[in-house]
Design goal:
The protein is an alpha+beta fold. 39% of the residues lie in helices and 22% in strands. Helix 1 runs antiparallel to helix 4.
Length: 192
């Protein structure tokens, strides 16, 4: 393999590894536990979450967020932001039974399935410091689609590099037609 081809393949591989590392450091998966976010987000549904708001925008009303569980040992809860600081909460949704204004530095969260949710109606407003992150991608698989794409890209570059290395040992520059034929045959073998 020519040194320039080797450097190009190595550079491509390093870029994909760097992107995968950035993705892994910036995002993590969380899972809905229980029926509190049904029907849109059933028990077990996975979310991609980040606390790097410069990438996804600030938390706002209607966002799905992950908060520290103020009442239990489960660690975290997935809820929807109902009201931001200064926002109004009607008496029917207030834990104090009267209209409430959300204090500065706090948010009011509710589960989508109000009959089955433990949320701000039970434990009150949530400090913004207790928000672990904002959910930015939703899916039902056990594996993240972006992870699959990144690792498939790494595998393709590695396969390309190995294939070029294998072919470059066999042919000189003048054997382009025979090289192209073998390239097709080797690709077909890899796909079988």
């Amino acid at each position: 393999m020519k040194p320039s081809s080797r450097r190009s393949a190595l550079f491509s591989l390093l870029v994909l590894v760097a992107l995968a590392a950035f993705f892994a450091a910036t995002f993590r998966t969380v899972r809905v536990v229980g029926p509190s976010m049904e029907p849109q987000h059933p028990d077990g549904k996975r979310f991609l979450m980040t606390s790097d708001y410069w990438l996804v925008g600030p938390i706002s009303k209607g966002d799905v967020v992950v908060i520290d569980d103020p009442e239990g040992p489960s660690g975290e809860l997935v809820k929807r932001v109902y009201a931001m600081p200064g926002g109004e909460v009607p008496s029917s949704l207030s834990p104090i039974g009267m209209k409430q204004t959300v204090p500065k530095g706090q948010i009011y969260v509710l589960g989508d399935n109000r009959d089955e949710s433990t949320d701000s109606r039970d434990f009150g407003t949530v400090p913004l410091s207790s928000v672990r992150g904002k959910c930015v991608h939703l899916w039902s698989w056990d594996m993240s689609i972006p992870f699959v794409i990144v690792f498939a890209g790494i595998a393709l570059i590695a396969a390309d590099w190995l294939l070029l290395r294998r072919l470059s040992k066999r042919y000189s520059q003048g054997d382009a037609e025979e090289c192209a034929h073998d390239f097709g045959r080797i690709c077909a073998e890899l796909l079988e």
